[in-house]
Write a structure and sequence with these properties.
The protein has 147 residues and is mainly alpha-helical. The protein is built from five helices and two strands, in the order αββαααα. The protein has helices spanning 2-12, 43-63, 69-96, 107-118, 123-145; strands at 19-21, 24-26. It has a two-stranded antiparallel sheet with strand order 1-2. Helix 1 (2-12) packs antiparallel against helix 5 and helix 2 (43-63) runs antiparallel to helix 3.
Length: 147
C-alpha cells in the first residue's frame, strides 16, 4: 500500500509547483498551457511525460493488487536515467570542444550554492525525485517478491 502512495505522489507531482521565479510558479502541467509542437519534441520529453503516466499506472495496479514492480521500477528510473543521459551528453560536448573537465570544487561552496537554489525549488520537484528514488527501491522489492 505504501508503494501505491509513493507512486501516486510521483504522478501528482505533475500538478504541483516545481519552481518559483519572480512570483511565477512553474510546473510540468504548464506544458499543456503552451502551444507545444508535439512532433518536434525530443524523445527525452516523451520519457519525462511517460514517467508520470507510469507512476499513476503503478499506483493503480498496486491498489488493485496486481503486479506493478516493473512499472514502478521503470517510472522511478526514468528521471535518473534522463539526468544521466544529459550529464553524459554534456561531458561529450565538453570533450568535443577540447575544454577541460570541471573539477569537483569545494564541498562548502556546493552546500552554499544549494542553499541559494533551494529558495526557488517548489514541493513538486522534491516530490518527483524523492518518490522516484523510493519507487526504484519499491519496484525492485516488488520484483524480488514477484508482486
Amino acid at each position: 500500500m505504501l508503494s501505491a502512495l509513493i507512486a501516486a505522489v510521483m504522478a501528482a507531482s505533475f500538478f504541483l509547483p516545481w519552481m518559483e521565479f519572480f512570483g511565477e510558479t512553474m510546473s510540468p502541467v504548464m506544458i499543456f498551457d503552451q502551444d507545444v509542437p508535439w512532433g518536434d519534441m525530443p524523445w527525452q520529453f516523451y520519457a519525462f511525460l511517460a514517467s508520470f503516466a507510469l507512476a499513476a499506472l503503478g499506483a493503480l495496479l498496486a491498489l488493485i493488487r496486481q503486479p506493478a514492480g516493473v512499472i514502478m521500477l521503470v517510472a522511478g528510473a526514468i528521471p535518473f536515467g534522463l539526468i544521466g543521459q544529459q550529464v553524459l551528453a554534456a561531458r561529450d560536448q565538453v570533450q568535443d570542444l577540447g575544454l577541460p573537465m570541471p573539477g569537483g570544487g569545494d564541498p562548502e561552496d556546493l552546500i552554499n550554492n544549494f542553499d541559494v537554489i533551494q529558495e526557488f525549488i517548489g514541493i513538486g520537484l522534491y516530490a518527483y525525485f524523492g518518490a522516484a528514488a523510493l519507487l526504484v527501491l519499491f519496484g525492485l522489492g516488488r520484483l524480488l517478491r514477484g508482486a
